[in-house]
Every structure is written in structure tokens, then in C-alpha cells.
Amino acid sequence: IVRIPAGASPGLVSAVLRSVKP
Description:
The chain is mainly alpha-helical. It is built from one helix and no strands. The two termini are 16 Å apart. The mean pLDDT is 74.
């Protein structure tokens, strides 16, 4: 489970998701 901060930008979220699930 990845916890995303409320202030995270969509681009940052997608980048994190790509790094977690390549």
C-alpha cells in the first residue's frame, strides 16, 4: 500500500506508481 500525501501533484503520483510497478 502506497500512501500519497494530500498535496502531491498528479505527475509525482504517477512517477511513484511507475517506480513501484514498472
